[in-house]
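Work package 3, deliverable 3.1, input record:
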Amino acid sequence: MTEAAANVQPIASTETAVPKPDTPGRLEISREHGLRLLHEMLRIRRFEEKCAELYSAGKIRGFLHLYIGEEAVAVGAMQALGREDAVVATYREHGHALARGVAVDRLMAEMYGKHQGCSRGRGGSMHVFDAQARFYGGNAIVGGGLPIAVGLALADKMQQRPRVTACFFGDGAVAEGEFHESLNLASLWKLPVLFLCENNLYAMGTRLERAQSQTDLAAKARSYLMPAEPVDGMDVLAVEAATKRAADAVRRGEGPAFLEFRTYRFRAHSMFDAELYRDKSEVEIWKQRDPITTFTSQLKERGMATDGILYALNMSVADEIDVAVQFAEAGTWEPVDDLLKDVYTPAEGRPSGSYGAA
Amino acid sequence: MGTTTYREAVRTALTEALVKDPRVFLMGEDVGKYGGSYAVSKGLLAEFGPERIRDTPLSESTFVGAGIGAALGGMRPIVEVMTVNFSLLALDQIVNNAATIRHMSGGQFSIPLVIRMATGAGRQLAAQHAHSLEGWYAHIPGIRIVAPATLEDARGMLWTALEDPDPVLIFEHQTLYNMEGPLADEAGAVDIDHAAIRRPGKDLSLITYGGTLGKTLQAAETLASEGIDAEVIDLRTLRPLDMATILDSVKKTHRAVIVDEGWKSGSLSAEIVARLVEHAFYELDAPLARVCSAEVPIPYPKHLEDAALPQPPAIVAAAREVVGRRG
Ligand SMILES: Cc1ncc(C[n+]2csc(CCOP(=O)(O)OP(=O)(O)O)c2C)c(N)n1
Ligand SMILES: [Mg+2]
């Protein structure tokens, strides 16, 4: 076999797959904060499970990408952001939207394509937008969000606003030119971007080793002269601590930072994926590090959670999701007469006079 | 004669090419281990190995450009881009290199490259996964654009494209992959120069291609039940356009409706209208008409996506109007 052929051989071993929890600085957390993190992760898990169910029922259509297994990343990272900060995400963004505070009922209505959805139904699962939450999508072109995040940060810097733009993307995006161009520009201009890579080891069916000559993704970011570190993405506290450190530096004007969260998606890439490219056993190994079950046991060990509290938490999340589904079901379809709406800004939304004659 | 699907027909064509010509290889995102994003290349990795079925990193510009380079270097690459939407990341390589190198080099270098990609809407994939941009590519001199709409063409266009010394882009409408029907066991290479008359008729010409051929044939049946005999032309090749077939048809029917999933503005349908006006103005008994996508990014909800796309009732209505306005 030629050398080139050897390079594209599948990596069968799963031993290298499990990341070592190598992040220092465990947070001392309050009981209240711990339960809040758990609550946030549970909301995402149950929301996604409900979406899978609704997809089978034909209520949700098109492409649906679930975040199950990766909840600690969105929840942990969002702890470092304030209301004034911005978020840019991918097509696997329901978790980020929820953790960011996008209303669960409007998010569910968007899954249905109802007019009451957060993108008025036009975008669906892959295109969640919410101006109030400064949530700038929901981008389904791999790598497409990174330059937009750079621009948002540029606007902040030019207007002297001490804000951070958090940009989530997958390991697959790291291969795109836009990743490199964005990191370079952000570093060159010292822009306040937090580049948050969710390395779940696969881009659809292509495992990291089969797509990257250098699999140490932080090393790539460091070559653009920004601080970069790998983080255990299955540990919500590690994610929170690392993102807070990075965000503080970015907010101080030190330029962009990069974090690589080592995580794993428990479900298929999308609802069309036959998962020919990975062994069930690999998935099972990672499930042992399920961020929700491990964090739940930690809270119990620390005496911060009891079975009663956990039961109540689960019930309230289930209720919340039920109410969201009811909201989506009761929502209405946008009239077909409005098909051409929102292609351009209507006249009343345009600034008058500033660009010469109307 | 067995039955097959469009997907299987493309796969058979790929297999044939890989067997016949050792210079042929397939490269693109998830064509190997994943089995192809539309399952077209499923099984090919096992059959032909990783040297010839190459999974690429997510890097459209580079792997399309590498296809150009490999073609220059004597290989016969088939590059798969998952969808036309992602091909925009490779637009530079396609337009600035694939289409120009033959010309810029004064004819020294040809680029025998085939690029396949899915196109079109109809599966509620929203505005970044549902556009029909093949008409844009048809704007570009130096590349050939084909759109197989039948099982025969899905099976037969690839080999002919590979034999072409210049770049050929093949657009496979994503709603066609599951289309099933009979295909002759001996089916093979087909020409990629001519449009085809899919239904002969005398009252008007319905001109279409790709994903809207089925809808147009359906509309023609409805029209037939009303006593209107429509001729349906499948363009097959969008560049260069087979104007001879189109003109022959319009000289017979004196009326035409163009059906295209692209938008109207600055489009392939506009080009056909312009050429009919230039070359058949005095043959026309009625204004030309077009049924195209609404001028809006394709929305997610089904009722709005359906409303945005050309549908049989709109084709029927346009045809009635054109026929009703007898000069
Ligand atoms: C430019 C572009 N190329 C290809 C695709 C098809 N595609 C969608 S998701 C995906 C995998 C991306 O993987 P990764 O960035 O690791 O994110 P993950 O899905 O693992 O969260 C691919 C290839 C796309 N959406 N955009
Ligand atoms: Mg990934």
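The first helix of chain B runs from residue 6 to 20.
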